[in-house]
Design a protein that fits this description.
heterodimer; A: 296 residues; alpha+beta; Multidrug efflux transporter AcrB transmembrane fold; Alpha-Beta Plaits; 4-stranded antiparallel sheet; 9 helices; elongated; B: 441 residues; Gyrase A, domain 2; 6-stranded mixed sheet; 15 strands
Amino acid sequence: MELIKNTRFDFIGKRKFAYLFSLAIIVIGMIVFGMRGKANFGIDFVGGDIVQIKFSTASSIVAVRNELKKLNIPEITVQEIGTEHNEFVIKSPPKTSDEILGVLETSFGKEHFTVMAKSVISPSMSVTLRKRALTAFFAGLIGILLYLTIRFEFHFAVCATIAIFHDLLIVIAILAISHKIIDGTIIAALLTIAGYSVNDTIVIFDRIRENLRKTRSKNYAELFNQSINETLSRTVLTVLTVIFVDVLLLIFGGEPLKNFAYTLLFGFFFGAYSSIFIASAILIDWQKRSGFRFKL
Amino acid sequence: MMRNHYIKLGFIIAVIAYCIWQIYPPDKKIKKGLDLQGGVHIVLEVQQPPEQDKSMSDVTQRALEIIRNRVDGLGVSEPVIQKEGTNRIIVDLPGIKDTQRAIDVIGKTALLEFRLVEEDTKKLTDALKGDSEVLKDYEVLYTQQKDERGIRREATPILVKRQPELTGAGLTDAFVGYGPSGFPEVNFVLNKEGAAKFAEVTEKNIGKRLAIVLDGVVKSAPVIRDRIPDGRGQISGDFTMDEAKELAVVLRAGALPAKVDIIYQQIVGPTLGKEYIEKSLRASLYGVIVVVIFMVIYYYAFGLLADFAMAMNLLILLAFMSLFKGVLTLPGIAGIALTCGMAVDANILIFERIREELRSGKSAKAAIEAGYHRAWSAILDSNITTIITSAILFFLGEGSVKGFGLTLSVGIIANLFTAVFATKAIVDFAVANRSIEKLRI
């Protein structure tokens, strides 16, 4: 079977639309992100307690919320998970989970629910985790930038890195718009996206490199378009297989993998999109502006 | 030439056999992370002790050894206790059921002191008002009482001497016993030196009260009736049996050299992990099946080849985990599933290239050679960039994320071997000594 064969799309010619589209999502997302402030982040990065409880029979989220109001602690959030109306996740400020469990025990009875999981992260630990996440990001980006500079050349490496930035910004924008919370697992997803996004870019760049070596033509736009079209089938198929797995994780993987798979889904999609419309397109625009020659 | 093919195939079969032997039975060979089997993950921060001259790193090391003794007293099967930086200690207790007790045992300073009580009520009132004259030599401590919810609250203030007569440092043993009224209490035995000091203190202060202070709380303050020569005593104070046992464990292990703060604590109940495993494994299985079927539909026999490479990739990954005691976490399972999705990528690159070479008019064998040869640079580059990011996740990630970084890194490295070397060996073997007119790919 062969779905994509001998295509001749003018990707490079449409790049301005793509720039606008990406910019729109990023701008909207960043506005929402800015408005949400601390609410963007999970307790890993701002500190706090999370308790997950499961009642032996179905229970109402309103009842749980009302009981917790007695504590007079601001910023307690209760969220229902699963489908049986008996499992709740309670998020609260640092060192309040014991009080919360105390109240629940007196109101509902100790024997009627179990503590499935509990996390307590102090503000000082969250600072460490935040630093580590940022270090991981920059170490990852610098690593990729260096490797690509060695294997390709500097301009290619910079454009691939810009594409990664683009993908991460878009995904963070989408997370903000869909009111998701960024925690340690999401950071892992974002780094995976960074690593995977560059894969698609490399497949295209690899072909551009090959075609540049073969020809003396200076019509770069055409050469880029040709390279993208020649590798289009690959780009689509490689992303498709990993998206298959990811969608099934999203549907059947259960609560803790849900946000992880959700983040990756957009990451994989925009990773492929950006390898064409961002990485290759910016490389062309850059070449046009400064007129450098590719040293490959 | 043919001999070469047999050697390669033999090698592939040997790798597969070794991996299966290494993995089987998976339940025992692959270690599950805390999130999957339940347990506690704690990060403790050791506070600067009052004596400024001691190096923080040494203090943390001593605290770590004491915590290790306490954990041994809990009877956890495979605890991990390690130092991080100069002032942090990481404690992992997989599979532990009574998590709250474990946390109490680990986090308690357990500084046991014996301090003389000052009965003068005027001095006590002055001290409560903050009279610095009295507070120079004395200190106000409180007893505790349980409220209706069983939470201990401060009760009666007691004025005690600032300088303890004796500390728990001279303690050799502690065990649970029953007091005269039938309540559990903790018996302790002091070493020779401690016993001598204890005898001296009790002899000099007959008729006075001696407060038994644990971590700044007055547990009891019995009147000294007689000289106690043998260095034996009891700590009573409204304990449940579990609390008494817990106290005995920490007293035996000794007091921490400084106060510790629990700055990170993750508890996963045993049932939750089971649920996670079932769901994530099922989802992964579905994902892999879809990819397997898709590859066969899209590339026919070559798709089957890619599926074989993917299965081998999975085997190597699991064998590695078993061999190097890697820990399988929930994101790790997701990592394995995604690795399967990415594992076929290399083969897609190769197969698409073969199709391209065929279109350009090459013969079947030449197209296969060129396909593998020319796809190699893209495969190598893309795998290495993925390894860069996943290795960073492994080194910098916290807890379960580490497991994800590990499975992804190993999966991608194994991918170079299975998707390129192994499939090429099989294709070469299949087309050797045969003339192929048309390649169905």
